[in-house]
Amino acid sequence: MSKIELKDWQEKIRTPEIECISRDEMASIQSKRLVEVVNRVYDNVPFYHEKMKDLGVEPGDIKDISDINKLPFTTKEDIRNNYPFGLRAVPEEQVVRVQGTSGTTGKLTVIPYTQKDIDVWGECLARELTMAGLTKEDRIHICYGYGLFTGGMGLDIGVSKLGATAIPMSSGNTKRQMMCMEDFGATAFACTPSYALYLAESLKEAGVIPRLKIKAGIHGAEPWTKAMREKIEGILGINCFDIYGLCEISGPGVAMDCIHHKGLHIQVDHFYPEILDPGTGTATKEGEYGELVFTTLSKEAYPLLRYRTKDITSIDYSRCDCGRTLPRISTFKGRTDDMKVIRGVNVFPTQVEQALVSMGGAVAPHYLLVVDRVNNLDVLTVMVEVDESYFSDEIKKLDALRDKVGKVLKQALGIAVKVKLVEPKTIQRSEGKATRVIDNREI
Ligand code: DLL
What we know:
The protein has 2 domains: 6-23 and 111-335, Rossmann fold; 340-442, GMP Synthetase, Chain A, domain 3 (2-Layer Sandwich), CATH 3.30.300.30. It has helices at 6-12, 23-44, 46-55, 76-81, 115-131, 150-162, 174-183, 193-205, 226-236, 349-357, 389-392, 395-413, and strands at residues 95-101, 109-114, 139-142, 165-168, 188-191, 216-220, 239-246, 251-257, 264-266, 271-276, 290-296, 307-313, 315-316, 328-329, 334-335, 340-342, 345-347, 363-374, 377-386, 418-422, 437-439. The longest helix is centred in the N-terminal third of the chain and has 22 residues, at 23-44. The protein starts with 5 loop residues before the first helix and ends with a strand. Helix 5 (115-131) packs across helix 6. 32% of the residues lie in helices and 25% in strands. It binds 5'-O-[hydroxy(phenylacetyl)phosphoryl]adenosine. 5'-O-[hydroxy(phenylacetyl)phosphoryl]adenosine (DLL) binds next to helix 6, strand 7, strand 8 and strand 12.
């Protein structure tokens, strides 16, 4: 393994000019594209035509990007109500692909793309793989699922655009993943962070790590913490990057962090971000947390105005140490619908993850939050895996660790929690997005 180092990265990688222009220059590109997209949806998507009429807004009222708050919001519900293709803005013959997501309940979200949409998607991903220091000389092992989910196919399109070699493994069969990673000499791999940790531990157990050529990991599709990133980096001796996206907006590649790891750069020439108070829908102050809302500026088949992602983050418009002026969103806290209110306190699974990893190896960051209501009171149980030696040694050691984890979690969350220490591999591993919370109050 040879971690990508800052020095090599600076020497090898040339940042595309569009990622370094001034905020005013970017605003003028965004304004032109916003006017085009608003006209397009007003003329071609009855849903937006009606919504704008209801608000008393004509396309001519939108003159530049600062007019964006005159436009209507779009929600997941709106997409569901127009299932499958009701919000399509181009004739059928221009559509070349559909991708989507499988919600756990209700209908799928299915998103059509034109060839230009695919080209833009590939371009954004290629820019981001470049941010991670990858070039056409790299071999990228993709263990995101292929299929309707955008992870596998999206990365594949980006790797091709970069001119690197895609190894399209898809998810599952960890033994085979490990064999191919080694035999094919992959230099980077892409999967969810929870699977990356599992794979890293499996590679370590099998003693394969010294023979691998991996230098970078590209991980996203679910919330994770800096502590988790450092944990995976530590096991594999590599540099890991946080990649963000959602199928409604295109898929992976909407944003990614660079080697400085000071937030995820958004491709704002294609996706215009706002950070809003989720309750009132008004803008938060720069740097404050809120809900990320996107307007697609160049999508042809399925443009969306002010799409409420429910993802909680903050934004920073200052120039990054890498030279990019693309604004950066902070590592995601979670989603508004991920956040649990327990005895009046807001709890995100990422807070638990952060606290567990801060305990420095005493417990593994394989965890599950279970919320129950007992005698009208909310009870949060955190299940967490610990080394098997704790189960063979005297019971006192296990009790002491349980107390310690309880104290650390109470301090991090501000409420008392029940801690259940379990043996390694008890909590189900996921090859895709991990389940972090079971809320029995909702059943
Ligand atoms: O998860 C696209 C993707 C694939 C992103 C591969 C990155 C890598 P969906 O299935 O539509 O698309 O789920 C989108 O996943 O709204 C977030 O809640 C969450 N999410 C995605 N990336 C991150 C990330 C793909 N880096 C939903 N950090 C989004 C935190 C993420 N949450």
